[in-house]
């Protein structure tokens, strides 16, 4: 009878432990819930998120219904047509081309380049920084010498030279050219944080237990610096919009017959356009300002959510 009582006690203890774990798992909010709660607590960031998502979806879908070659044809009868008319919502430029349609297609091109550049350069820079900071020693020394060499190159001049010598290029080609040079900042930032993380106890314990280096790098260290990665990628996206815009403004970005935010802002080079024909450049300038501010708001919320998720994981 005593044995039956002990067995019944053991089963009850196991059930209680299981129920306790299930209750704790239910009480612990998921990462998605943490992010959503952070957005609900920050109304400006919520509005910024809707602005970014809504605008990107609008320009990506809207550009599919616009015939770009036909849109770029010259129409002298619509020379600097005034805005807010049924045919020209935002007016027309010096070639009689619709500013509204150019803004949609140009936004699609500029945002597409920024997204592609952010994905490629951030992915390469994060991997480079993680590997360099984790292994340290001669591997870190060699990788940092490559970094120093890339930093010595005049980046803007090199991009202009590459764009000049390539006979036919498009948005994809331009994105890859940018990606050659725009990974250095991310790699240096990730490396500095990885150097500190590699000295912590959980990394030493994983090494002692025989965990492979790649699992430690990508399954343990990288999640612990996710807040830094999120903020860097978000700010890089906002910066990369300006990269294409700046070079197109100087005439070394996308070809002249390919609309972009930079080519539209370049209309401000003419003093008459600044004062008399403001609609040829002002909408693109306002769009860049609003997008960059909205992306900054969203990035700060994602950083707070990542920090909260990491603190929750440490507490568990």
UniProtKB/TrEMBL annotation:
It comes from the Bacteria. The keyword Isomerase does not apply. The chain crosses the membrane at residues 45-66, 111-135, 155-183, 278-302. GO terms for biological process: transmembrane transport. Residues 107-299 form the ABC transmembrane type-1 domain. Its main location: membrane. CDD domains: TM_PBP2. Keywords: Cell membrane, Membrane, Transmembrane, Transmembrane helix, Transport. It is found in: Cell membrane. One of its GO terms (cellular component) is plasma membrane. It is a multi-pass membrane protein. PANTHER family: D,D-DIPEPTIDE TRANSPORT SYSTEM PERMEASE PROTEIN DDPC-RELATED, OLIGOPEPTIDE TRANSPORT SYSTEM PERMEASE PROTEIN APPC. Belongs to the binding-protein-dependent transport system permease family. This is ABC-type dipeptide oligopeptide nickel transport system, permease component. It comes from Levilactobacillus paucivorans.
């Amino acid at each position: 009878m005593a044995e039956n009582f002990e067995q019944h006690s053991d089963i009850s203890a196991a059930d209680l432990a299981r129920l306790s774990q299930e209750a704790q798992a239910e009480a612990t909010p998921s990462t998605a819930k943490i992010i959503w709660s952070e957005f609900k607590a920050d109304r400006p960031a919520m509005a910024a998120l809707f602005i970014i998502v809504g605008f990107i979806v609008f320009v990506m879908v809207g550009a599919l219904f616009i015939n770009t070659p036909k849109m770029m044809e010259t129409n002298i009868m619509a020379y600097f047509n005034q805005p807010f008319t049924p045919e020209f919502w935002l007016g027309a430029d010096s070639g009689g081309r619709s500013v509204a349609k150019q803004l949609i297609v140009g936004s699609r091109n500029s945002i597409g380049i920024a997204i592609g550049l952010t994905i490629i350069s951030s992915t390469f820079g994060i991997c480079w920084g993680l590997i360099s900071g984790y292994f340290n020693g001669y591997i870190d020394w060699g990788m940092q010498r490559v970094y120093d060499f890339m930093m010595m190159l005049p980046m803007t001049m090199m991009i202009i030279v590459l764009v000049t010598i390539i006979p036919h290029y498009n948005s994809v080609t331009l994105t890859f050219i940018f990606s050659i040079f725009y990974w250095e900042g991310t790699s240096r930032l990730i490396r500095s944080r990885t150097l500190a993380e590699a000295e912590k106890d959980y990394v030493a314990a994983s090494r002692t237990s025989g965990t492979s280096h790649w699992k430690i790098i990508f399954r343990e260290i990288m999640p612990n610096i996710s807040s830094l990665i999120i903020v860097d990628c978000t700010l890089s996206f906002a910066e990369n919009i300006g990269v294409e815009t700046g070079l197109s403004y100087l005439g070394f970005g996308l070809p002249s017959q390919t609309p972009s935010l930079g080519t539209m802002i370049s209309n401000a080079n003419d003093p008459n356009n600044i004062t008399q024909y403001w609609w040829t450049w002002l909408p693109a300038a306002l769009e860049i300002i609003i997008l960059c501010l909205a992306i900054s708001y969203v990035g700060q919320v994602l950083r707070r959510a990542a920090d909260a998720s990491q603190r929750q994981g440490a507490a568990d």
